[in-house]
DNA sequence: CATAATACTATGCGGTGTATAGTATTATGC
DNA sequence: GCATAATACTATACACCGCATAGTATTATG
């Protein structure tokens, strides 16, 4: 699939995947993977970006000697999702524009 | 609107806007603008990219002393549109994933 | 006669997906 | 018992693309 199409979707995907739970990176990858292709090198930067934007709050905890970072969606994160849904209406219109003009194709 | 969401859509928008006609840059901007925000600094690089990818064929012609480049969608361009439509089905699924997990939001 | 519209070109920035590589622990299979 | 896989993170570096900015040059308009 064209990479560019996924841009802007992934951030919200991660927020949606975390939902109301307390999730950590590796778990999120496993959760999302069946639905959307995502690797560590994609996810971890996203998590850091979302944290910097205050869309996620983070709590570090040790689990079996390994450090785990648990993420939780903040109110700002929920607003982000809401905005995304509004944007999506516009995206749909753009798609309609394309679909209408390429019926024969 | 989030810029990232538009990525990957614009290329196909341009192909769709040209359709079966013989269009030039400035005209395309005027055609698309009511539906999708697009400026010269966005469109012209897109046209060059699509040309390099053989999705567009180009013919230069003088019009009132000004040089005009007329673009036409090639078979490869039409394939590109077809692929996009297939990709869109996947994108819709990703959106569903998000929508389902954020009903309360 | 100035301003707007037309129609291109070129440069550079910033955001982001991802490849690659590194570190370190625990669980599993032969 | 030891290699391999799974777990769980970090850091660096590249390529793509939307867009801002700026420049050039002609034609149409008030």
Q: Terminal Cα separation of chain A, in Å?
A: 19 Å
Integer tally of domains of chain A? 1
**Beta-strand residue fraction of chain A:** 15-25%
CATH topology of chain A: Arc Repressor Mutant, subunit A
Helix % of chain A is 55-70%
The chain pair forming the largest interface, with residue counts per chain, is:
A-B, 36 and 37 residues
Instruction: Provide the CATH superfamily of chain A.
Output: Winged helix-like DNA-binding domain superfamily/Winged helix DNA-binding domain
Taking all residues together, what is the mean pLDDT of chain A? 94
Oligomer: homodimer
- Low-pLDDT residue intervals, each spanning 5 or more residues of chain A: none
> What does the main sheet of chain A amount to?
3 strands, antiparallel
Q: Which sequence of strands runs across the widest sheet of chain A?
A: 1-3-2
Structural class label of chain A: alpha+beta
* DSSP E strands of chain A, number: 3
CATH class of chain A: Mainly Alpha
Based on CA inertia axes, which overall geometry of chain A fits? elongated
Features:
homodimer, 105 residues, alpha+beta, Arc Repressor Mutant, subunit A, 3-stranded antiparallel sheet, 5 helices, 3 strands, elongated, DNA-binding
Task: Please tell me about this protein's structure.
2 copies of one chain form a homodimer. Chain A has 105 residues and is of the alpha+beta class. Chain A has a single domain (3-101), classed as Orthogonal Bundle (Arc Repressor Mutant, subunit A). Chain A is 59% helix and 17% strand. Chain A has 5 helices and 3 strands, in the order ααβααββα. Chain A has helices at residues 3-6, 9-18, 25-32, 40-52, 75-101; strands at residues 23-24, 56-63, 66-73. In chain A, strands 1-3-2 form a 3-stranded antiparallel beta sheet. In chain A, a hairpin with a 2-residue loop joins strand 2 and strand 3 (66-73). In chain A, helix 3 packs across helix 4. The radius of gyration of chain A is 16 Å and the shape is elongated. The model of chain A has no long low-confidence stretch (mean pLDDT 94). At the A-B interface, helix 1, helix 2 and helix 5 of A face helix 1, helix 2 and helix 5 of B.
């Amino acid at each position: 699939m064209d990479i560019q199409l996924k841009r802007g979707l992934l951030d919200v995907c991660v927020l949606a995947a975390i939902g109301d739970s307390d999730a950590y990176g590796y778990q999120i990858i496993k959760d999302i993977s069946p639905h959307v292709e995502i690797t560590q090198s994609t996810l971890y930067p996203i998590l850091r970006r979302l944290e910097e934007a205050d869309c996620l709050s983070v709590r570090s905890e040790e689990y079996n000697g390994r450090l785990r970072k648990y993420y939780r969606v903040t109110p700002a994160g929920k607003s982000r999702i809401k905005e995304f849904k509004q944007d999506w209406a516009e995206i749909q219109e753009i798609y309609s524009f394309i679909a209408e003009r390429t019926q024969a194709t």
